[in-house]
Amino acid sequence: DQQLPSETRKLLPSPKVATYDLQPEMNAVAVTDAVIDAIDADEHAFIVVNFANGDMVGHTAVEAAVIKAVETLDTEAGRLMQHASNAGYSIILTADHGNCEEMVDPVTGEPHTQHTTYPVPCMIVDEQMWQLSSEGGLVNIAPTVLQLMGLRVPKKMASSLLLKAIPEKKHDWTILSTSRKSKA
To answer: What stretches of the chain show up as alpha helix (H) in DSSP?
Structure first.
C-alpha cells in the first residue's frame, strides 16, 4: 500500500489495553477531532476515516462494551458528519463488514467474535438530490465516490453507480440510507 505524493495519512494509535472491551471508546474522539481539523484546514477534496470501535470491540463479544462502542460511534460519527456537511463535503458512511451486531453464535450459543456477512449500512449525505440504488455492495463505493466528486467514472465502473441524479432538484442536504452486502 504505497502512499501517493498528494496523499496525507494520519494514523492515531489505539489505546494500549489488553482487550478493547476495557476501553470501548478507543480513540474515536481524537479521530473525529483530527478529521475536523483536516476539514477546517481546507486542503483535501477527499477524506477517508476509519473508526475501528465496532470491529475491535465487537471481537471481544462483551455486550456492555459493544453497546458503549456503538454509542461512542453514534456520537462521533454524528459530530463529524455535521461538521463535514456544514463545510460542504459529501459524505458516504458505510462499513466493510459486520461484527458487533451478533454477540452470540446462533448455532453454538457461544460468544460470536468474528466478522459477519450481514448487510452493512450505506448512508450518503449530499446537497444534490439522488435516488439511491437498493442493490449493490462494496464494489459500488469507489465509482460512487468519483461520481459525487464530479470526476470521470471509468466505463468498466459506470454500471456500478449507487446514485441516479434527480434532475433540476437541489435540497439543503439529501440523506440516503440503505444496506450494503459485505464480503467478510
So the answer is: 28-41, 53-58, 63-86, 141-148, 155-158
- What's the CA gap between 45 and 43, in Å, rounded? 7
| Residues comprising the chain, all counted | 184
60-88: average pLDDT: 96
Confidence of residue 177 (pLDDT cuts 50, 70, 90): low
Q: At what angle do helices 63-86 and 28-41 cross, to 10 degrees?
A: 10
What percent helix, strand, coil does the chain show, rounded to 5? 35, 20, 45
Q: So where are the chain's domains?
A: 8-89, 117-184
Whether 76 and 29 have beta carbons less than 8 Å apart is answered as: yes
Give the residue carrying C-alpha cell 459485505: 182
pLDDT at 172 over 60: no
> Cα separation of 176 and 174, whole Å?
6
Output the pLDDT for position 168.
Answer: 66
Please give the share of the chain, as a percent, with pLDDT higher than 70. Answer: 91
Residue whose C-alpha is closest to residue 118's, from 53, 35, 175, 58: 58
Evaluated on CA atoms 48, 13, 113, 65, the torsion sign reads negative
Residues 63, 57: Cα–Cα separation, whole Å: 9
